[in-house]
Amino acid sequence: MSKDVKAQAPQQGIGPRRGNRFAETEYAKDIGWTLKRIASYFVKEKKLVFGMLAAVLGGTLAGIYAPMLQSNAVDIIAGQRTGDLRTTLVFMLATYLAVSLMRLAQGVCSANLSLRIVKQFREELFGKVIDLPVKYTDTHSHGDVMSRMTNDVENISTTVSQALPSLFSGVLTIIGTAAIMLWYCWQLALLSCGTIFLTVIVTRLLSSFVRKYSKERQTLLGSMNGTVEEIVNGYRTVVAYNRQDQSAEKFCDVSDRLTKAGIRTEVCSGVMGPVMNCIGNIGFVIIAAFGGYFAIHGMISVGVISAFIVYAKQFSRPINEIAQIYGQLQSAIAGAERVFQVLDETSEDLYGLIWEDQEHVSVRFEDVEFGYVQGKPVLKDFSLTIPAGKKVALVGSTGSGKSTVVNLLMRYYDADKGAIWINDQNVEEITRDSLRKHVAIVLQDTVLFSDTIHHNLQYANEKATAEEIKKAAEMSRCHEMIELLPQGYETLLTGAGENISQGQRQLLAIARAFVANPRILILDEATSNVDTRTEKAIQDAMLEVMKGRTSIVIAHRLSTIRDADLIVVLDQGRIVEQGSHDELLARKQKYYDLYMTQYAGFAT
Q: Can you tell me the distance from the alpha carbon of 303 to that of 291, in angstroms, rounded to the nearest whole number?
């Protein structure tokens, strides 16, 4: 918010990269605490959780039982077992059908559970973000906050819908399959496990190479995207200095290295499948060879061999899946921890006294001291009285504390020392909600929303009528501009106003402040993006709007505040002089130097 010095937090990461299961995994700092918090969300959806677990359990048991029926059918055909083949085949068909139905039910339950839990996360997180104090958004990367709302929450959604069912199913499958294999023939079961261990070892080995090359590729991809963005955004400068060839060489160098890293990553990833199939086939050979030997010696039947082939595949598949989703689970837990960190932030204090509305409003600063960073005050011993209905201008060099005065008055921050009074009420005792309802502010950095012009103007006062909105637009000299647009007041602003000029956006912001009909009006470089002629028209309009209102104007162009009732000059957080325009010029001190510098044509 402030243009003065602020505490800047270090840029934080934007969460784990997606789309590559071998990418670097982000780990939570306190896994136990995070898991307990996550579990509380599952408790609210007990029916879906039990439904999903029941579907996983039913599908897993049916999947384990089906090869046993297959074994019985083979033995009946081979004459090694008595029984009704038709009945056995019907049961086997019904079992495989049950597996499919259970997996369908599992998918439906997990999808609903995922969406419901993510809905809880998003609603709580968004509700928290809009209640956070301005200090939090000033000291945290906006991209990081957005990432927690999107990437981290989406990561949790993917884990709930895919990884958790696979984890539960995998664990049950491993336990059940191992028990059946040991029950059938423990010797053949132990021989089959040899390929399982080989699979795990090879997977870990190849994954380490893929992870290494994947990290390099992601780094180079970020570098290439940064290069492209830099060239596109600064294309006029590139062309002006004839740096096209050098820019192309820089891009091609990064692109070549990215291509090499990508080839290494894809080759290592591509090898994974064939190697796993090869190991699996070796396992089938072992089962066929030793199974045949055991069958000849009467230790097992032919049907058991067929069942073992299915079980061996069932046993190795979940092991690979669990190894692959381990990183995804860790990243999801880390993402949840990042979300909980925001949820645990202290919200803006909404308690206090209600604004005592009066027709005449004065503002008084008493010995105020404040700094964005502890030990580095921006305002020092700041005392100022703004009489009711008067226009006071704050001027001074960049970083002198002008915008900080506004931040404290709006209670974006609270003063470290001293007090701010509105009539007889201490600002820190007034609720932020009632305070801001009576104060309107127009910033240099205009913020509009992707909506119609009418709704953007009505944003300041939802009860404002179309006639009141039109009147505010006329007063701010933007009614004719609006009427020239395709749909007038119903024109949709795309990209938060990118389809109109910066000057037009600022005019709309001024009109929006007029719609609010405030007791206190704050203009922070409000006409910096309009031409001189329009600025003069707005100044004339403001004279009418400011009648009876306490007004604070921050301006660098000193010609725009000549008519101010009081001009306050700040330097390094202190008031160095104050008075009318003519009085300050006559003293020939700080204000005189600023004015003459501008008059001479130099920037201040």
A: 10
